[in-house]
Amino acid sequence: MQNVTSARREDLESASLVRAALLADPVRRRIFRFVRRARRPVTRDEAAASARVSRNLAAFHLDKLVEAGLLSAGRQLVTGSARVGRKPKQARANWSRPSRTSIASSFARKACR
Q1: Which residues pair with 90 in a beta bridge?
Q2: Which of 12, 46, 86, 92 is the most buried (most CB within 10 A)?
Q3: Read out DSSP for the chain?
Q4: Does domain 2-112 have CATH number 1.10.10.10?
């Protein structure tokens, strides 16, 4: 049972390292911070404007953050008049994910070993 627990802990620490490495990119970090601070679903256009990058580049970074589990994605609900085409994709922060403090503390624990 001890080996299963330590293996699970190593998997979690490895996932934390991957998430932290994703945030090393300054554009991706700006987009992530914007989405976290918005406290509401954010469109790709809003993320692009906040980071001063193209919509396609913002979409690329948002998709990477969603794949890593740092953000979640969904479609915008349309109210009012009917809209033609697909609903805009939105990203929102995953509040249940580890914070920067918990990621930093996992680095500190690993460094002390």
Answers
A1: 43, 74
A2: 46
A3: -HHHHHHHHHHHHHHHHHHHHHTTSHHHHHHHHHHHHH-S-EEHHHHHHHHTS-HHHHHHHHHHHHHTTSEEEEEPPP-SS---SPPPEEEEE-TTSPPHHHHHHHHHHHHH-
A4: yes
List the chain domain ranges: 2-112
Residues 6 or more apart from 3 whose CB is under 8 A from it? Answer: none
Tokens of 92: 């929102």
pLDDT in tens, 5-60: 766 667 667 777 878 888 999 999 999 999 999 989 999 999 999 999 999 999 99
CB 44 within 8 A of CB 89: yes
